[in-house]
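Working notes for the structural subgroup meeting. M.R. asked for a predicted model of this chain before we commit to crystallization trials. I am recording the input and output together here so anyone reviewing the notebook later can reproduce the run.

Input as submitted:
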Amino acid sequence: MTFLDMLSAAERQNGSLLCVGLDPEPTKFPAGLKGDANKIYDFCARIVDATADLVSSYKPQIAYFAAHRAEGQLERLMEHMRRVAPHVPIILDAKRGDIGSTAEQYAKEAFERYGADAVTLSPFMGWDSVAPYLKYHGKGAFLLCRTSNPGGDDLQNQRLASVEGQPLLYEHVARLAQGPWNLNGQLGLVVGATYPAEIERVRALAPTLPLLIPGVGAQGGDAAATVKAGWRGQDGESTGTVIVNSSRAVLYASSGDDFEAAARQVALHTRDQLQAAKPAV
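Returned structure, recorded in token form:
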């Protein structure tokens, strides 16, 4: 199955648009695990076990593992997710952006070493920074488009005088991803939940691409507004889906021994919120 096939199947099977981001920070772990970087795998695996029937995807953020020399634990976690939730695709949040042989190595890391189904990329070095990832049949790639951080305005919201129609930079990225760059049919876009009007604009420019939307939960993005702006469907099926990420709100729902149950409860509530916000089609 391609990444988009897996995503669509998980969305149907779990009735979910929710992505749980796996951003392990040992200082925030519950009692018994707190402060121990050797317990990153244990913590994340237990979160996965508690939420595997509630999500459309998982998104491990590689920096949270690499900072603690826990790449081996990430490899184990990827294997665990494929074993206990084989129907749920895994998006490696790496935000890579390089060219040539270096990009080829990053693609090999994401898809061969870690076995990810998709990866996040920075497209701002141009087409040749994206192309190596598309050589992997059926693998997905999400391009940073309109991110949730305030500093995104510095570049993404600037007008391109040299391009016909003078689009904003993020609009140009959306058009490229929907059109000439999407050679393997598996591209998507990253758009922050803190900008619902711009989610809607990206959806208009990229009507069929999956949108990976961080910023719901701890960052303050509104779940219902996000889905209304970005999700499109027909006859009950997604024609342009959204992947709404929540990390800290799920991972650190409780600092006690009940952290798995608490994480499940927050994930369940968020999943149901997202489902309820889908426009009637």
